[in-house]
Design brief:
The protein is mainly α and 255 residues long. 77% of the residues lie in helices and 2% in strands.
Length: 255
């Protein structure tokens, strides 16, 4: 692997481009999680009652936050990367410089993770305004690390899909068959305890389930028995997905 400090240059290029559209991008990033928090958390929460002795909004916020990180980092490394690669031919110019293909890919994954982190922080601020906060300052710090790790993981998975994508339409398979099921089978909106056994087993395979469990533990201040396994799952899967993404995307960029 030919990784170097030049990853920073790729990230910086994206940051400069992002500054021109920061306000509309932030507004768009807020719409979907705000929709979930209001319609599900407040609207449906009035009929749901309390879950585990707590309002439904407190159950919902940790899952919506992490799912927002997943969506943002994934789409950055799907649609945005494909646009740069196929239509703008940006990487042809980038890898003609001292920036290697691995640097360019890693920089894009880092950018996707950063965008996911920004989205997560925005949701965190909205949730705080609505009265839902992490249990402690140290918990908030751990939550930021969790969002960054989740951003790298889902950005890398998105980059793997991009390495095979012939057209934009190809991404529909990934979003409809992987991203959308995770939203509904990872405990974001409903507790997994009420699911059938086979569904619980399926949920445990999905990376979002483990991230949501950790996020919920941070907000509640509790330490469930499986917390270490959740963290270990993400720590092992994230670098594995990252290096697979580097290898597959390099094969597509360097012909």
């Amino acid at each position: 692997m030919n990784l170097s400090y030049r990853i920073i240059h790729v990230f910086h290029r994206n940051l400069i481009s992002y500054k021109r559209f920061v306000l509309p991008t932030l507004v768009v990033s807020l719409v979907e999680p705000l929709f979930y928090l209001i319609t599900f958390g407040i609207g449906m929460g009035a009929y749901m009652g309390r879950l585990g002795g707590k309002p439904y909004l407190e159950f919902l916020v940790p899952g919506v936050l992490i799912s927002g990180v997943m969506m943002t980092s994934s789409f950055e490394c799907l649609y945005d990367t494909f646009l740069k690669m196929v239509h703008q031919k940006l990487y042809d110019s980038v890898i003609a410089t001292p920036v290697s293909a691995e640097d360019a890919i890693a920089g894009e994954i880092a950018w996707g993770a950063f965008r996911g982190l920004v989205n997560g922080v925005l949701v965190l601020v909205m949730a705080a305004i609505m009265g839902v906060r992490p249990s402690s300052p140290s918990g908030a710090f751990f939550l930021l690390l969790l969002m960054a790790l989740s951003g790298v993981l889902f950005g890398s998975l998105g980059m793997i899909v991009t390495s095979f994508a012939p057209t934009f339409d190809f991404f529909n398979y990934y979003t409809e068959l992987f991203i959308t099921p995770m939203l509904f089978f990872s405990g974001v909106f409903f507790p997994l305890d009420s699911f059938p056994g086979w569904m619980k087993a399926f949920a445990r395979v999905l990376p979002l389930t483990h991230a949501v469990d950790l996020s919920r533990a941070v907000f509640s201040g509790e330490r469930p028995p499986g917390m270490v396994l959740n963290l270990l799952y993400l720590i092992l899967l994230s670098p594995a997905a990252f290096f697979v993404a580097l290898r597959l995307m390099k094969r597509r960029l360097v012909k």
